[in-house]
């Protein structure tokens, strides 16, 4: 996107952000907030592994809350999987991803993580809706 050059993207790709909030997220947020010109918005996309509450609570930390606010929390759900009663299309692959993530320090069942993400969301985006029939999207 022309309006968002690559140098304005900060990627934290070393595991579950809810487990690395203090170590990785807050320093990254400090770097973002120090940019000139000032950023208008920050969009944080977490993986399906992240517990949302620790991340949202980090915005209440004294070092953060005076500089930035949370305007909304968005969750993206796999429409066809959810229509079939699953939280992901390939549960085995999801479990393997979780098992292979050495930085993930919680082992909550993925269904509980999903429920927490939905409970914290102000907006839920239904992905892959083009693969669903009208009954599945109703």
What labels would you give this structure?
two-stranded parallel sheet; 7 helices; 138 residues; globular; mainly alpha; 39% helix
Q: What's the pLDDT, averaged over the residues?
A: 78
Largest sheet: 2 strands, parallel
The main sheet orders its strands as: 1-2
| Principal-axis shape | globular
Amount of beta strand? 5-15%
What is the tally of beta strands? Answer: 2
* Tally of domains: 1
Quickly count the helices.
7
What is the CA-CA span between the terminal residues?
33 Å
What is the string of SSEs from the N terminus onward? HHHEHHHEH
Give the low-pLDDT segments. none
What features would you describe in this structure?
The chain has 138 residues and is mainly α. It has one domain (6-137). The protein is built from seven helices and two strands; from the N terminus they run αααβαααβα. The protein has a two-stranded parallel ribbon. It starts with 20 loop residues before the first helix and ends with a helix. The mean pLDDT is 78.
Topology summary:
Elements: H1 21-33, H2 52-58, H3 62-65, E1 74-78, H4 79-83, H5 91-100, H6 110-120, E2 123-127, H7 134-137
Parallel strand pairs: 1-2
Summarize the structure.
The protein is mostly helical. It has helices at residues 21-33, 52-58, 62-65, 79-83, 91-100, 110-120, 134-137; strands at residues 74-78, 123-127.
């Amino acid at each position: 996107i022309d309006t968002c050059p690559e140098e304005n993207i900060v990627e934290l790709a070393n595991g579950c952000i809810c487990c690395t909030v203090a170590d990785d997220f807050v320093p990254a947020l400090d770097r973002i907030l120090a940019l000139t010109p000032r950023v208008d918005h920050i969009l944080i996309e977490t993986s399906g592994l992240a517990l949302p509450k620790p991340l949202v609570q980090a915005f209440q930390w004294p070092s953060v809350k005076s500089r930035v606010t949370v305007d909304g929390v968005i969750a993206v759900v796999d429409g066809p999987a959810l229509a079939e009663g699953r939280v992901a299309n390939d549960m085995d692959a999801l479990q393997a991803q979780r098992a292979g993530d050495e930085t993930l320090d919680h082992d909550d069942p993925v269904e509980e993580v999903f429920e927490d993400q939905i409970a914290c969301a102000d907006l839920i985006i239904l992905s892959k809706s083009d693969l669903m029939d009208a009954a599945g999207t109703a």
